[in-house]
Amino acid sequence: MDGVGGPRYTPRAAEAAASMSVLGNIGAGWVENGRMWRHFFALLWGVLRITPWPRYWPRTTRNVLARQLLFTGVEASRFIALIAFFVGLSIVVQFQYWLTKFGQTQYLGPVLVMTVVRELGPLLVNFIIIGRSGTAMAIELGNMKLAGEVRALDAQGLDPFTYLILPRVVGAALSVFCLTIIFIVVAFCSGYISGTLFGANPGRPLLFVESIFGALQQADVLNLLIKTLLCGAMTGAICCAEGLSVGTASTEVPQAATRAVVRSTAALFIISALVSLATYL
Fold first, then answer.
1. Which of 167, 187, 213, 253 has the maximal Cβ count within 10 Å?
2. What is the pTM assigned to this prediction?
3. 135, 260 Cβ separation under 8 angstroms
4. What's the pLDDT at 20?
5. Average pLDDT of the residues of the chain
């Protein structure tokens, strides 16, 4: 006991208090992260649940979906095709050259499917959509929240979830799927043409196509669908949620856009890894 009888404050007690404080901060962080991801998945589940029902697709929502598809899908197709061209020019040609050199051309189809279809195509397209359209969605909704447009929609009888979130999430998912198909086709075509020009000896076009389709399995198709549709929808849900989380300060808008990119990228890696493990192991 200290002088008058108060509790003795020893270095050991201070160390224990500091340790408990650190553990408490770590636990609070985990709890907050759990709530955040639960909110994202709940938002995504809400979109998936109401998407098939026509009553949730009035003309105003369909118009927003059309604009989202135009911006995220159509306007990004040229850039996706350009990236796919260079991927085919580098990766596909290298596979053709080295497999032909070592006399293992029978593995060309499986190797291309494993790299381009399973992993590289969905990942690159999702990355581009996160950086290009994800930030745009977060900033757009953040500015709408600041300007009071979200409250105005609610006052006019328009459900903000149906009008703002549903078409953007669906548009992002469909755009990622279609752009990934474009990416794969352009990469294979540019790879074959480049291989022919550079002497990689890819063989006849029909044999090249047959080697790729012969290596495709049902698991590859399922893997492609999940990594494009689910990851694209998750990107849309996260970006919409972060944009609508903006409060009253204009400085929160770029912060929300940054969080949207970081968390969408984290979700992409996590979902892709889990899907690959569940599909191929």
1. 187
2. 0.85
3. yes
4. 59
5. 84
